[in-house]
Amino acid sequence: MGTVRIGVIGVGGMGGSHARDVRKNVKGATLAGVCDAVKETADRVATELGCKAWTDPEAFIASGEIDAVIIATPHYAHTTIGVSALSRGLHVLVEKPISVHKADCQRLIASHKGGSQVFAAMFQMRTIPRYMKLKQLVDGGALGELRRMSWIITNWFRTEAYYRSGGWRATWRGEGGGVLLNQCPHNLDLLQWICGMPRTVRAFCRFGKWHDIEVEDDVTAYMLFANGASGVFVTTTGEAPGTNRLELCGENGKVVVEGDAIRFTRNEVPMSQFCRTSKQSFAAPEVWDIEVPARSGGGQHQIIIQNFIDAIAGGAALIAPAAEGMNSVELANAMLFSSLTNQTLELPLNGAAFEQELAKLVRNSKFHKKTGTGAVSDISASFNK
After folding, report:
1. What pLDDT digit, counting tens, does each position of 88-147 carry?
2. Hey, which residues does 262 pair with through a beta bridge?
3. How many angstroms separate the CA atoms of 6 and 68, rounded?
4. Is 375:168 a contact under the CB 8 Å cutoff?
5. Upper half-sphere CA count for residue 310 (Cβ side, 13 Å)
6. pTM (2 decimals)?
7. Which domains does the chain carry?
């Protein structure tokens, strides 16, 4: 294929940034058009970037003027627009989460024709060097078998102005969840990408604890993995200053990722071996303190878009295949469902059961959403570095 004709659907926020990347920063593609339900938004971005404007996604998809589409709409439309685009044979790059709930993920993934049709997800945090290095340490066996993971990720602070910037935000009907569905899909994706999926989840979510919203803005979850390792995941949009600290403990030591630093405290003798063989009551393995180099990274969204185009044009391996996006959705759904039903859940999650629970929340909602004037002014400020 020659130059890939890209269309972007939903350009009021993140999608506008993606459209600018396609127009200015990536190779092998041209921005053929943008689409937004708000005509003024579509026209403004199209004029800025010198392309056609559309307001009807179905007409845009059926136009014959695009080879591929980037979907950056409110969450529920990821499924409906994605199914339509995939069914018509277009290549698709979908923003996170790929769908609101697992059952919709399954419907969306089933629409992928396979073969040369490329279907990717915008999990740009997989390109951050420190997480790439951490995955390398785990996959390569340097850390040994995992015993424990904990991630405190509370630097997703959001103001009331943020939540009032759109009527769909932080509602069951418009977004399908809060911090787990909006901010944390990236962290949940990295969790499963590096550690694998847990077997059980028990979560405690607080709904509208720190903001005037009806969905979760504070979460503590406990997980167990197949090998017996435990995990704790803590997040909120109501804490400042926040923390971003990921800690993995394995047979060979402990790795802490905080800021741009990776600190590996490596046991000279694996902990289980030392536990069985030491003759001392209060001894512990000697350790090496290692600062693991990981350069800073930028242009993460651009990297994913370029990879998407390269996969279409030349068969490059995807950094984030969309099918893997169901795992982060399943984790988010399981945490919500566990809290709502006050029980420990075994995975895989019953997607149909959660879909019914979510539909009940939508149906029974009496929440009156307050909105402000205008949209989020600077989307780049949301990028969690």
Report:
1. 999 999 999 999 999 999 999 999 999 999 999 999 999 999 999 999 999 999 999 999
2. 257, 292
3. 5
4. no
5. 12
6. 0.95
7. 4-125+302-321 (3.40.50.720), 127-293+328-382 (3.30.360.10)
